[in-house]
């Protein structure tokens, strides 16, 4: 099962996911990133959301190659 890493890209830089999560497919990883991004926006205070309006997940495979980008907003 492939492992994908959900790095967070924002205006302040890149927060690297050192652990990753195993998924059956890239499509499953993207679906999970969309759900997680929406939940993060709901959980954060309004000020934090405004500070990271362009935040997104950069999903990388085990080799470190970014295979998908998913904005928190969708």
UniProtKB/TrEMBL annotation:
**Cited InterPro entries:** DUF6894 (IPR054189)
Q: Where is the DUF6894 domain?
A: 3-73
Q: Highest taxon of the source?
A: Bacteria
Q: One Pfam family this chain carries?
A: DUF6894
Q: What protein name applies here?
A: DUF6894 domain-containing protein
Organism listed in the record: Hyphomicrobium album
């Amino acid at each position: 099962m492939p492992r994908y890493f959900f790095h967070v890209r924002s205006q302040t830089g890149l927060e690297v996911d050192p652990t990753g999560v195993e998924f059956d497919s890239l499509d499953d990883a993207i679906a999970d990133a969309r759900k997680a991004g929406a939940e993060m926006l709901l959980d954060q205070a309004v000020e934090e959301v405004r500070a990271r309006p362009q935040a997104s997940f950069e999903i990388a495979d085990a080799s470190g190659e970014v295979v998908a980008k998913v904005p928190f907003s969708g």
